[in-house]
Amino acid sequence: IMGIALIADSILVERARAHDELAFAGLVERYKARLLGYLTRLTGCPSRAEDLTQEAFLRFYERLDRYEEQGKLGAYLLRLATRIFLSEERRRKRRALLSLLIQVETDTSESSIIEHAYQRQVREALARVPAHYRAPLVLFVVEGLTYQEIAEVLGVRPGTVKSRIARARAALRLYLASPEEEQLHERLVAR
Questions:
Q1: What's the whole-number mean pLDDT along residues 127-145?
Q2: pLDDT-based confidence at 55, cuts 50/70/90?
Q3: What is the helix (H) or strand (E) element at residue 167, kind and residue range?
Q4: What is the per-residue DSSP string for 78-141?
Q5: What is the pLDDT of residue 37?
């Protein structure tokens, strides 16, 4: 696989289309860490991110014949991974809602100890940000993509990306604020 690192994506894609397993393995090796890191930040769960990463590569393999090489395989894979993540998020929310509707009156009050570590607070706050705002923020801040690249990944316009990132940052500021500040904000919004 060492020599594969020097081969262009377009050549590896062509070889993978011809059922060259080593070529496809080279593409996976080239992009796996990037997708896994991105999805780990989105989900907050490494094992879930691993599953989504595998699903993204599986879907890419299944659709190799339809992939049009434009020198942007990384952006294509990030877009595919984002769509898989968003679909899974919708399914998870539906299942959670369904379980709440079906759940019998077995209300178990959850008392969780608040951990004061800043990183945990940021992860929790980020998890509260709606997925359609969270994805562009992670792509911008962590993955270092430009607005244009993020727009291509998400299939939206650059202006939409910019506004979603701004809204994600505002939500993060709110969620990282003290409970008193958050309550004050909610009261002002309610007026």
A1: 87
A2: very high
A3: helix 158-176
A4: HHHHHHHHHHHHHHHHHHHHHHHHH--S-------PPP--HHHHHHHHHHHS-HHHHHHHHHHH
A5: 96
Q: What does the chain come to in residues?
A: 191
- The number of C-alpha atoms within 13 Å of 73 and in the hemisphere containing its C-beta is 23
Structure tokens belonging to residue 111: 């008392």
Alpha-carbon distance 136 to 115, whole Å? Answer: 27
What are 66's two structure tokens?
């339809």
- Choose between 78 and 71: higher pLDDT: 78
Residue type for position 73: L
The pLDDT of residue 108 is above 70: no
* CA distance linking residue 125 with residue 119, whole number of Å: 10
Please determine, for residue 45, whether its predicted confidence score (pLDDT) is greater than 60.
Answer: yes
Between CA 72 and CA 185 the distance in angstroms is 42
